[in-house]
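TA notes, week 10

Several of you asked for a full example with nothing omitted. So below is the full record: structure tokens for the whole chain, then the designed sequence directly under it. When grading your own attempts, check the secondary structure regions first.
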């Protein structure tokens, strides 16, 4: 299933990049790029249950977070699900605004290694892997700052999460930055969690759905229906997590039910009544909040 999803995602991205039709505010389909992050699973559930058929939204499942920028910049998508740190990296974000918050990472974004933190401080030429155009670099910077680690200890490699999840230790000195569900796969290979967004308190990682403002305003009822479907999916998750998991497990990179339940402990849902402190934090980072549905 994982390889099928990977190939399907690549095919979709290629097809969209070859398309010559740019989206306009008055459109029949609102394309949003997304990925298998644990916080986005309610979108998967709503899609599987057919709830999104009542909207014009179409979610494109991508492999790399840099696909968000590629497709949006070419006018081939109307937005994406991501953290505020991915938003910061966009060149053309004047019209991009978050329309509702999804979650705050509280342990589900992780740094893994086959070395302890003390060993990392002493070693050189550690192979470090992270994803470009993502919060990964910010997590790494927070990690080396908190634990006083020399950045010169590392050799950096850039890869998408599918590639990172396939990395074998093979007696090398390794450090990888990942997130759920991929982190569970890495742990099965022998990597150990040495830090996460739970301990790295200098950084707050907040996920939202970002949409081109003109399209979001023109499709207000669709956005409200999407938000309602997302909220209902979170309710179903809390009510019957097993049924929820069975409905979406094809998206979860072979993550077991027990691993899925554990990964949920690494996020805090923000889709309903997000705390004012979260809104204020985003505002201090110059993330626009005037279109947020609370």
């Amino acid at each position: 299933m994982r390889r099928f999803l990977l190939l399907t995602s690549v095919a979709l991205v290629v097809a969209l990049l070859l398309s010559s039709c740019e989206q306009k505010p008055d459109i029949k389909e609102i394309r949003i790029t997304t990925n298998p992050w644990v916080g986005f699973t309610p979108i998967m559930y709503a899609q599987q249950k057919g709830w999104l058929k009542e909207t014009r939204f179409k979610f494109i499942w991508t492999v790399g977070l840099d696909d968000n920028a590629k497709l949006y910049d070419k006018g081939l998508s109307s937005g994406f699900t991501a953290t505020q740190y991915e938003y910061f990296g966009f060149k053309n974000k004047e019209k991009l605004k978050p329309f509702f918050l999804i979650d705050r990472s509280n342990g589900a974004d992780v740094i893994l290694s086959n070395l302890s933190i003390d060993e990392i401080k002493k070693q050189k030429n550690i192979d470090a892997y992270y994803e470009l155009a993502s919060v990964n670099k910010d997590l790494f910077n927070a990690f080396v700052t908190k634990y006083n680690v020399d950045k010169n200890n590392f050799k950096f490699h850039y890869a998408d999460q599918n590639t990172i999840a396939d990395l074998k230790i093979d007696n090398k000195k390794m450090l990888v930055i990942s997130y759920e569900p991929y982190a569970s796969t890495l742990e099965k290979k022998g990597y150990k969690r040495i830090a996460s967004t739970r301990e790295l308190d200098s950084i707050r990682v907040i996920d939202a759905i970002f949409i081109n403002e003109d399209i979001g305003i023109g499709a207000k009822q669709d956005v409200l229906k999407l938000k309602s479907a997302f909220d209902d999916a979170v309710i179903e998750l809390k009510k019957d997590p097993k049924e929820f998991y069975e409905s979406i497990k094809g998206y979860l990179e072979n993550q077991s039910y027990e691993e899925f339940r554990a990964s949920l402990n690494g996020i805090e849902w923000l889709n309903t009544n997000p705390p004012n402190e979260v809104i204020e934090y985003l505002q201090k980072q110059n993330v626009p909040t005037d279109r947020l549905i609370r």
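The domain at 2-105+204-284 is CATH 3.40.190.10 (D-Maltodextrin-Binding Protein; domain 2). Use that as a sanity check on your answer.
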